[in-house]
Specification:
Number of domains of chain A: 3
CATH topology of the largest domain in chain A: Rossmann fold
Largest interface: A-B, 59 and 58 residues
Shape of chain A: elongated
Number of strands of chain A: 12
Structural class of chain A: alpha/beta
CATH superfamily of the largest domain in chain A: Response regulator
Oligomer: homodimer
Chain lengths: ~350, ~350
DNA sequence: TTGTAGGCGTTATCAA
DNA sequence: TTGATAACGCCTACAA
């Protein structure tokens, strides 16, 4: 079986006995074409089932109408919400989306970056991997004046735009809430400190302790991949401590829930013995018992804003932004896991 | 700031004083070019920071090296696992991915289909929306000999390949398990029956009842969007029944968990009063108390297999498949929510 | 083993 | 308002 012959503007022009130039203009809604002619052309295109060839077009206009997205992994609630938000905008604006996962590895991230570069995406949306320690691999984009935006997992830089939440403030408020519940020995589970998100949360956490004259205990700080299993592992470590903390603030919900379940299994009462709080407001927080106190992180909105900002930048043909970073609002959500009073 | 001049094979050819044909061949690893020449060309390309222009290439070879994916919504655990699986293969094989969401609407699905068509994807991976009642909108692909594969939410057809699980069997086994727990009045929560997945589960459910001489009660069948809120709604309906069921089998985990939590809130004991079971094996099933009995649905594997099969078909340049459908294995996972004995 | 040249489908410049 | 034509960057007969 052979495929159907592809219909081009040449076919339309031939059938109508006019030039391809006019056809092209009509198809692009150029004003300089008589309404009557345009109508005929559009009808013919329709009846011939014509589809514009984006490659020929891209070749000419040097725009690909696609946006690249590089993220650590797609299958977390937060990340898939972001993607969903991004997609909701790109679809409307007529942009395609090329998505790739770094799986938290710098090599993958670099490889993905190269692929995006060869594919000549019009812009790039990136959430950095755990391992990423510098951002040299985005230089080619900057040199070509292609806008790059970091979201969530950002990087301290003046060359690209960062879209994030105020992690420090959110962590501060959350910690303060725990302190107000009379907790004195608060543990923290964190992720890769190379990443601002986690580092800032740690800073906010420490600041709240200090401001309330509480000591930061090194043995109450745990660092891991922030998944459920490692959360359970932290629980086992905590159970072995001579003195257990009376509160735990985990840098994401998955890990915190994993920890919570394991503690419960060992007979620890939440929140009476240990108050707990996570971060993200994943659906899981409303399923676990007790429901988990957390910070609402607006993933979908972040996707929407990232995509919209990037597309604006593409349209204005400049890779630089007025702002250096955009901060989204978060909200502390207090649930039973931390309510002692 | 203006962007750097783009380097092409012409530049390489000029610098080396050879023809672009040779350069092109070297870049494509053609055997008919002297090793020495090839080496020089590759080095020059490297030092010039050359990137092949995929649009010029696509224009010539009529392959885009991109795969389209149309799904209802990305932000469910199952779907993001599938995407993750797809991406893991496409990246290796050098294909880009264009993802779009139908949001369960047929208009969106059709619009997305058209976009994919204009973008001339080399192949299409589709999970149908709730509303989709026919698949005429994929005809253009078939006519152009572009392979289309339906996964999960499939459609009874001979024209395209279906990749799915044996929903009927899985539902049958699950129902049988509930019956073995001595449940006599089993309710079922289902989704859009236009979709094979849900219809087949219902059929399997009914078959198990019949084979065990249990009656199917119309008032024990609930149909909704299968999210948590609607699950809670079902719970409220059930609480109002003169005689409550003694087991509930929900067609997905989200909805079943929503229902379970609401029943618990009303004082219903799970599994003593009502045994419960879901479908998918989302992480949430291991968080809810009691842990939810479910069917393991291998989303990542399904993504991997779908992508691999599609790419093979693309490589063989034929849109037809030997097989009409591929069935993946599932596994019944029994947890406390249904263990009465 | 290498080179010449035509063409893929568009857009854009210039002229009519 | 329309038309002729030259790119855009690449691949691939065909010729050398």
């Amino acid at each position: 079986m052979t495929s159907e012959k592809e219909v081009t503007i040449n076919d339309i022009a031939a059938k109508l006995g006019i030039s391809i130039a006019t056809v092209s203009r009509a198809l692009n809604d150029d004003t300089a074409v008589r309404p009557n002619t345009k109508k005929k052309i559009l009808e013919m295109a329709e009846s011939l089932n014509y589809r514009t060839n984006n490659f020929a077009k891209s070749l000419r206009v040097k725009q690909t109408k696609t946006i690249g997205v590089i993220i650590p992994k797609i299958n977390s609630h937060f990340m898939s919400s972001v993607i969903s938000g991004i997609e909701s905008i790109t679809t409307i604006e007529g942009y395609g989306l090329i998505i790739s996962q770094s799986a938290e590895s710098i090599e993958n991230e670099i490889r993905n970056t190269k692929t995006m570069f060869s594919n000549r995406v019009d812009g790039l949306l990136v959430s950095l991997s755990y391992e990423t320690a510098n951002i040299h691999h985005f230089e080619p984009f900057r040199k070509k004046n292609t806008p790059v935006i970091f979201f969530d997992r950002t990087f301290e830089t003046n060359d690209y735009l960062n879209i994030q939440i105020d992690n420090r403030k959110a962590a501060y408020k959350l910690t303060e809430h725990l302190i107000q519940q009379n907790c004195k020995r608060i543990a923290h589970i964190t992720g890769a400190l190379k990443r601002d998100v986690y580092n800032e949360r740690l800073i906010g956490f420490k600041a709240a302790l200090k401001d309330h004259k509480l000591k930061f205990h090194e043995e109450y700080l745990f660092s891991n991949k922030l998944n459920m299993d490692e959360g359970a592992e932290v629980a086992r470590k905590i159970l072995r401590l001579k003195q257990m903390p009376d509160a735990i603030f985990g840098a994401n919900d998955d890990c915190t829930v994993g920890c919570l379940l394991e503690l419960k299994k060992a007979g620890v009462k939440i929140p009476e013995d240990i108050a707990m709080a996570g971060f993200n407001n994943d659906p899981i927080t409303k399923v676990v018992e007790p429901n988990l106190t957390t910070v609402n992180y607006p993933g979908f909105d972040m996707g929407v804003i990232s995509a919209r900002t990037l597309i604006n930048s593409i349209k204005e043909k400049k890779a630089s932004f007025q702002e250096n970073s955009i901060i989204l609002n978060t909200e502390l959500i207090i649930r039973e896991s931390s309510r002692k009073t």
